[in-house]
Design goal:
Layout (H helix, E strand, L loop, with lengths): L4 H13 L5 H17 L4 H11 L22 H7 L3
Helix pairs in contact: 1-3, 2-3
């Protein structure tokens, strides 16, 4: 984020989030984002959305259309969501 500002970081995340035809790219972006969450350089919620988009079952429960997709360890879901600002 330091190089491109918040608008640039948000735009880059949006591109990765919707690059559904290239899941390997999405996963690589999520992996690159992971350590940056702890430093505040990446929004935790952005990482959570991208992680859920590329993994099954979801970890943060961010996706679902008419019915929610499966979520791992549902008993601790609210705690995970709160940590990520969801």
């Amino acid at each position: 984020m330091a190089q491109v500002g918040q608008d640039g970081a948000d735009a880059a995340w949006l591109l990765a989030q919707h690059a559904d035809k290239d899941p390997a790219f999405q996963r690589s972006v999520a992996e690159a984002m992971k350590p940056l969450v702890a430093t505040g350089q990446v929004k935790a919620s952005s990482y959570a959305y991208l992680w859920d988009r590329t993994n099954e079952p979801q970890h943060y429960g961010t996706l679902g259309r008419w019915e929610p997709r499966a979520v791992e360890m549902p008993e601790t879901l609210d705690e995970r969501r709160a940590r990520m600002g969801l």
